[in-house]
Amino acid sequence: MHEFAIFAAAIILLAILLDAFETVVLPRRVQRQFRITNWFYRNTWRPWARLTSHIKSQTRREAFLGYFGPLSMIALLGLWACGLIFAFALLQYGGGEHLSAGNIKITFRVLLYHSGETFFTLGYGDITPASGFSRFLSVAEAGMGFAFLGVVIGYLPTIYTAFSRREIEISLLDARAGSPPSETELLSRAANTRDTAGLDVLFHDWERWAAEVLESHLSYPVLSFYRSQHSNQSWLSALTVILDATALVMAGIENVNNEQARRTFKMARHAVVDLAQVVNARYDPGAPERLSSKDLAEIRSQLAAKGLNLHTDDIASQKLSELRSLYEPYVQGIGRNLFIPLPPWIHHEPIKDNWRSGPWDRVIQARGLRRITREPVTEHAINIDEHF
Predict the structure, then answer these.
(1) Of 13 and 231, the one with more pLDDT
(2) Is omega for the bond preceding 341 within 30 degrees of 0, making it cis?
(3) How far apart, in whole angstroms, are the C-alpha atoms of residue 227 and residue 64?
(4) Which domains does the chain carry?
(5) Residue 179 — pLDDT band, cuts 50, 70, 90?
(6) Is 190 helix (H, G, I), strand (E, B) or coil?
(7) Taking the CA of residue 72 as centre, how many other CA atoms within 13 Å lie in the half-sphere pointing to its CB?
(8) Which pTM does this prediction carry?
(9) Alpha-carbon distances, residue 375 vs 66, 119, 371 (angstroms)
(10) Model confidence pLDDT, tens digit, residues 115-131
C-alpha cells in the first residue's frame, strides 16, 4: 500500500511539474495528446460557454465570457497547487514518519493538512517529520512552495503585458475600420487619404501585430480566452479583417502595389492556422458563406467611389476565392469554439464607431439642439464632419 502511494505520488508530481513547465516556461506549442491544462480548459470552457448561450444581450454575454480567461488562469494555478499538496501528502504517507504535538493519530487527512502548511510555509510546528526521508520531503515541498509563488508573481504580469500590447492595435482599428470592423471600411477610410501608399504602412504594422499575436498566444494559450474591452471588438475580428483586406488587394486593385499585402497575408494566415490548433478548432464543411456575389459587387461599387477599382475579371474572382479558402475555415473554426462572431465583409447598415459613443451623448446632443433652436447659427458654428 505504501509503495503504491509513493508510485502514484511520483506520477502526479511529475505530471503537474511537466504541465506547469510547458504552460509557463516553454515558449512553444506542445503537441502531446494529453495535458492537464488542455483537459482543464476543455472541461471548464464547455459548461461556461453553455451558460453563456442563454444570455440574450451581446454586451452582457461578452462581459460574462470575459470573466473566463482571468478566472480560469487563477483556477489552473489553484489546481496545480492542490495537486502538488496532494502528491507530497501521498509521499509523506508512503514513506515518512511523523510526530504530533497533541498526540493526534497520524492519518492521511492529517498528513494532507501538514503538506498544505508546508507548501505555503506556515510552519505551525504541530506536526513534525521524524525520519530523514520525511524531513527531506518537507524541505523540498517548502522550496517548491516558494518557487510556485515566484511563478505566480512572474506569470501574471507577463500575461497582462502581452494582453495590453494586443489590445492597443485592436483599439487603433476602431478609427480605421469601424466597430465592428470590416475590410470595406478599412480600405475605404484608407483611400480617403488619397495616398494608396499608406496602405503599405498600414499592412506593415499589422504584419508585425499578427506576428506578436502568434508568438504570445502560442506561448500563453490562455490569452485566446481573454476578450477585448469592447463587445464589438476581438483579436480574431482584427486578424480576419486584415486577411480580408489583403486578400482583396492581392486579387487585384488598379494602381495598388500588393507586395506588402502578400507579406501581411502570409503572416496573418500563419497565425490563424496555428491558433486554430491551439484552441482545438475543427473544420466545418457546412459553415455559412461569408461573402456572397451580391456583397462582392457592392464592395466593388463602394471602393470604386473612393478611387479603388477592383479587378472584375474571372481570374481576379477565382484568385479571391482561392485566397479566402486558405483562411476562412480556420477563422470560422476559432470563432465557433471561442464564441467570437466574425466581422462582415461589408456593413449594410450605418455603423457607429466606439469613439463616437459616450454615456452623456444623448443629454449633450439634446441640450445642443435646444440651444440651436434658441440661438441663430453664426459663421463660427462647428461642422462636425469637417473635424472628423
Answers:
(1) 13
(2) no
(3) 10
(4) 2-153 (1.10.287.70), 168-338 (no CATH), 360-387 (no CATH)
(5) confident
(6) helix
(7) 27
(8) 0.83
(9) 47, 73, 6
(10) 898 898 887 777 888 88
Grid cell 471600411 in the structure block, residue:
185
Is the separation of the CB atoms in 200 and 380 below 8 Å?
A: no
**CA neighbours closer than 13 Å in the CB half-sphere of residue 234:** 23
Q: Are strands 98-100 and 127-129 parallel, antiparallel or unpaired?
A: antiparallel
Summarised one tens digit per residue, pLDDT across range 206-265 is 999 999 999 999 888 899 999 988 888 899 999 999 999 999 999 988 888 889 999 999
> Could you tell me the three cell numbers for 330?
480556420
Burial readout 180-205 (b: 16 or more C-beta within 10 A, e: otherwise): bbbbbbbbbebbeeeebeebbebbee
- Cα–Cα nearest to 334, from 282, 270, 269: 282
Report which DSSP code applies to 3.
H
The upper half-sphere exposure of residue 242, i.e. CA atoms within 13 Å in the direction of its Cβ, equals: 34
What is the H or E stretch that residue 127 is in? strand 127-129
Q: How deeply is 316 buried, as exposed, middle or buried, from its count of CB atoms within 10 A (0-12, 13-18, 19+)?
A: middle
Cell numbers placing 332: 470560422
Q: Which three cell numbers stand for residue 225?
A: 480566452
The amino acid that residue 369 corresponds to is L
Q: Which residues does 346 contact at the CB level (< 8 Å), separation at least 6? A: 182, 184, 295, 298, 299, 302
Q: What DSSP string runs through 313-351?
A: SHHHHHHHHHHHHHHHHHHHHHHHHHT-PPPPSS-SS--
What's the whole-number average pLDDT of the chain? 85
14-28 pLDDT tens trace: 999 998 888 888 777
